[in-house]
């Protein structure tokens, strides 16, 4: 309710007339009842459905335009029915029995990988803890291995639990429990290696594969979440514990999910002082662009507005760090003031 109220108040502050002329703003008021009836709205009320406008137009090409809405509704329905039959779905026949397409139709999809990709049909999903190694350089025949003492793992607080002379291969990414691809530099939540009932957050520094036992370890640069959110952004804040760089070694299976984290450029006074050549088709062009150079202030925001893994983030963080804060303390008085402004504007237009 607070989040919806904030959205409406922001639009009303920008242009009060939109509140009484746009029906979609009125629909926001009923979000609570809609969520109870049809479930979470994160996938039902986002702008991804704008892409269907072109599909609807294509579906009306063969229409006689006497009843275009009916023709447009029938065409996607026929497409979904075809997809159901091609993928081995069952349907009820005229006598009440269940049947499906023959093997020739069902095997048609198996022989056409392109159609499988278009329909989102994948044969296998990545598994938790699965890794992908760094690609070999040109002319390199064998992967380089490093002693554990030569990696960032040597800086970890639990480095003594592992053999310093064991050899490891550096990897490119690892699959988290939520099946996210987590790369070096990704921000993640993970199960603490010392306490399975607690969660830590940090930035991946290294992903290592053992050369002997194929054990996968992740070196995590651990950060701390402050107990209060940022006054300006209203988001949870990540800082180093006691301003010290702390690393921790944990099994790859402990990685839970990744999150979106942004640097606090406002406090660090970061500016677009960097200059570099623009990349075009993996090559440097002759065009120059500026980029933000981050000053050395280790203070970051957890982007609590991001859609990705929003449910996991809300289940992990304390409620007081992510609960919406009312934009105006006295909403009714604010609405009265905006109504006065709107009435004056409408009188002027007359």
Automatic annotation (TrEMBL):
It comes from the Eukaryota. This is Uncharacterized protein.
């Amino acid at each position: 309710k607070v989040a919806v109220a904030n959205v409406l108040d922001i639009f009303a502050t920008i242009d009060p007339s939109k509140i009484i002329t746009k029906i979609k703003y009125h629909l926001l008021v009923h979000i609570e009842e809609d969520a109870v009836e049809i479930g979470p709205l994160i996938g039902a009320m986002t702008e991804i459905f704008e892409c269907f406008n072109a599909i609807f137009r294509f579906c009306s090409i063969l229409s006689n335009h006497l009843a275009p809405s009916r023709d447009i509704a029938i065409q996607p329905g026929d497409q979904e029915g075809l997809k159901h039959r091609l993928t081995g779905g069952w349907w009820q026949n005229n006598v009440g029995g269940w049947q499906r397409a023959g093997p020739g139709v069902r095997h048609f999809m198996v022989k056409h990988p392109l159609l499988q990709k278009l329909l989102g049909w994948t044969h296998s999903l990545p598994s938790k803890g699965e890794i992908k190694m760094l690609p070999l350089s040109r002319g390199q025949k064998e992967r380089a291995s490093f002693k554990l003492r030569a990696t960032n793992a040597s800086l970890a607080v639990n480095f003594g639990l592992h053999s310093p002379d064991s050899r490891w291969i550096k990897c490119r990414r690892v699959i988290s429990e939520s099946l996210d691809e987590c790369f070096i530099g990704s921000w993640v939540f993970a199960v603490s290696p010392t306490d399975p009932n607690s969660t830590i957050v940090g930035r991946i520094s290294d992903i290592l594969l053992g050369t002997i036992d194929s054990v996968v370890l992740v070196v995590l640069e651990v950060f701390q979440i402050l107990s209060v959110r940022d006054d300006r952004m209203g988001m949870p804040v990540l800082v180093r514990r006691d301003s010290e760089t702390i690393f921790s070694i944990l099994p790859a299976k402990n990685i839970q999910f990744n999150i979106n984290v942004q640097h606090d450029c406002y406090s660090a006074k970061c500016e677009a002082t960097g200059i570099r050549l623009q990349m075009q088709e993996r090559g440097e062009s002759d065009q120059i662009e500026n980029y933000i150079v981050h000053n050395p202030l280790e203070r970051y925001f957890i982007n609590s507005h991001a859609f990705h893994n929003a449910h996991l983030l809300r289940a992990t963080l304390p409620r007081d760090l992510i609960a919406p804060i009312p934009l105006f303390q006295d909403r009714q008085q604010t609405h009265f003031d905006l109504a006065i402004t709107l009435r004056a504007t409408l009188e002027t237009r007359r």
